[in-house]
Amino acid sequence: MTRRMGVIVIAAVVAGLVIWFAATAMAFAQNAKDMQAVLDALKAAGITDKDVQTTNVSLEQNTQNQGKPNERRVFVASNSVQVTIHDMSSVGSVIDAAVNAGADSVNDISFQLSNPNTIRTDALSQAVTGARTKAEALARAAGAEVMRVVTIDEQNFRPPVYNQSLAALPRAGVPTPVVPPSSLQVSVTIAVVWEIA
What we know:
Layout: H1 2-44, E1 52-64, E2 72-83, H2 91-100, E3 109-112, H3 116-141, E4 146-158, E5 161-164, E6 187-196
Helix pairs in contact: 1-2
């Protein structure tokens, strides 16, 4: 009798595992299908494969109608991608294409420079020129002359990033209001020690 109960319990556990694996597999399969539709829409909107990166894949188990006779467990699969758009005028239409294809959230819209190293070099050059102008003015006022740089260090560089939040997903047929910034400001700080004589 005890042996028979043991077999039944093991069979129930195996059946439970089969049901759990089947549910998770179904959740992931549906998620993969939905995500492929979004990726196809992004590609049709002109986004290349190299400009799409997966940032998160997850599966969560939720309980619906907890404590009630119709309580049930559901599995929610999600997949997040980061999309880089090079044509700022198409940001809204790309979001619309993804949402219309099934994307159910859009987060962290940001605008940044495509060539930050070039801008950084220019900013550093301008910072050093400005530092020398100030040093020469101070030296002149003290009756001295700037001879040479003793040390020069970059203290801080902040690449310009402009973030825009999307309060809600667009309604069908209503274009997404995305307003790119008119300009981005680069900030660089340097410390220079000059020798004067």
